[in-house]
Amino acid sequence: MNRRTFVAAAVAGAGLAAGRAVAQSWPAKPVRVVIPFPPGGPTDNLARPLLQRLSERMGQQFVIDNRAGANGNIGAEHVARVAPDGHTFFWSPTGTMAVNPAIYPKLGFDPVKDFAPVSLVATVEGILIVAAASPYRTVRELIADARANPGRLTFASPGTGSVVHLLGEQLRHLGGIDIVHVPYKGGAPAMTDLIGGQVTMMFDSTAAALNQARAGKVRMLATGAKRRLAQVPDLPTMEEAGVAGYDSSSFHAVYAPAATPRAVVDRLSAEIAAALKTPEIRERYNALGSEPVGSSPEALAAALKEATERWGGLARRINLKVDG
User: Fold this and answer.
1) Cα–Cα distance between 115 and 256 in angstroms, integer?
2) Residue of 64, 68, 78 whose CA lies nearest to 186
3) Contact (CB, 8 A) for 319 and 293
4) Which of 137, 123, 68, 119 is nearest to 96 (CA)?
5) Which partner for 276 in 173, 229, 243, 292 could form a disulfide, CB atoms 3.0-4.6 Å apart?
6) Do β-strands 115-124 and 62-66 pair in parallel, antiparallel, or remain unpaired?
7) Can you list the domains of the chain with their CATH numbers?
8) Own/partner pairs for 23-26, CB < 8 Å, 24+ apart?
9) What tens digit of pLDDT does each residue of 271-293 get?
10) Dihedral sign of CA atoms 218, 219, 223, 228 in order
């Protein structure tokens, strides 16, 4: 081995050793996980049990910091600017990272340049629901009426540019129908008006749809998943209901500020994967209508790229823009 090769090998070895030392000593203090939505919502409900398990496993508290606003942009912009010391992370659903770049003319962060992927956490699906008193009992009946009465049927969402909004736009596009979007400031008022008959239909998360259906307040017409859900095996998929190519799948994931040490990113990725395999977390996530995943940083990067092409591409096709 010549001297140059020896020195290069020594430097590489020292770097690996330093990385291992950083990962072993981390976390040195409580870890802050920024969630860009209010407390008590679907994102919060998924994050809390996992972060509690991580706190137990790692001997430091993983604390939620809710920074809501602008479809997640406020929280994302904050994390993009914090010190990358391994003690601040970002928990985000698909919309903030994959859709917002397509719909906001001015965005204060870049999902690829400003963040380091850590791990996929869970996949979620949407269910098409109508009020319990609605005349529609199948997707085909709903689509037939929408075609017969263009512009009369409406669909609710918790806000313009949300993935729920795009699920309705996907139905409009693939179903070849003219339905009117009615945005609300959050899922709760949208659900209230759906139940009250002020809007025709809405896509919602599996857990929320199941809860309202069990309470007798809504009727589930189909799941947007590519296969039937274990929680409701008798519920058809949108594809089975006649809407070819429909896919509602999205995900929640954890990201770090871009320059966070790779050793820390890898360790957190491994810890998340291990925690998601525990029966308690799996049962909790299934009850929330989600599928726990866990992944390498590279797998999350690939998933974000695909989601950006699919959901961001749909937003661009319909020329969806949001001020702010």
Assistant:
1) 6
2) 68
3) no
4) 68
5) 292
6) unpaired
7) 3-123+250-317 (3.40.190.150), 126-223 (3.40.190.10)
8) 23/261, 23/263, 23/264, 23/266, 23/267, 26/86, 26/263, 26/264, 26/267
9) 999 999 999 999 999 888 899 99
10) positive
Whether this prediction's pTM lies above 0.70 is answered by yes
Site of tokens 């307040």: 217
pLDDT digits (tens, 9 = 90+) for 18-58: 445 566 789 999 999 999 998 888 899 999 999 999 999 99
- CB 70 within 8 Å of CB 107: no
In whole angstroms, give the CA distance from residue 178 to residue 208.
26
The residues near 41 (Cβ < 8 Å, ≥ 6 apart) are: 187
Beta bridge partners of 35: 66
The widest CA-to-CA distance across the chain, in whole angstroms, is: 81
Q: At what angle do helices 262-276 and 3-25 cross, to 10 degrees?
A: 50
Q: Which two tokens stand for residue 62?
A: 């993983």
Alpha-carbon gap, residue 42 to 162, rounded angstroms = 13
Q: 259, 288, 11: which is closest to 125 by C-alpha?
A: 288
Burial category of 101 from C-beta neighbours within 10 Å (exposed 0-12, middle 13-18, buried 19 and up): middle
Residue 20 in tokens: 């291992």
Cβ-proximal residues to 183 (8 Å cutoff; 6+ apart), any chain:
156, 157, 158, 159, 160, 165
Which tokens is 204 given?
């919602």
